[in-house]
Specification:
Strand content: under 5%
Helix content: 55-70%
Structural class: mainly alpha
Mean pLDDT: 83
Distance between the termini: 29 Å
Low-confidence stretches: none
Radius of gyration: 14 Å
Order of helices and strands: HHHH
Shape: flat
Number of strands: 0
């Protein structure tokens, strides 16, 4: 799929559920669920130990 060929409404229909999940799982401190829709290369590039620590200890990470 080429995103430039999609209408704004089509893009929003795909993006809204992803954004909803990002906010939900961030606020719940569920790192594994937060990254479930990330590409595998992006997820591997993230330092999981540091990101997990931020989720466990950061009010900001859990209050988007």
């Amino acid at each position: 799929m080429n995103i430039t060929e999609q209408t704004d409404d089509e893009i929003l229909a795909m993006a809204k559920p992803l954004w909803r999940d990002l906010v939900k799982y961030s606020n719940e401190g569920k790192y594994g669920d937060f990254v479930k829709n990330f590409s595998s290369s992006f997820a591997r590039a993230m330092n999981q130990v540091i990101a997990g620590h931020q989720f466990a200890n950061s009010e900001l990470a859990r209050n988007l």
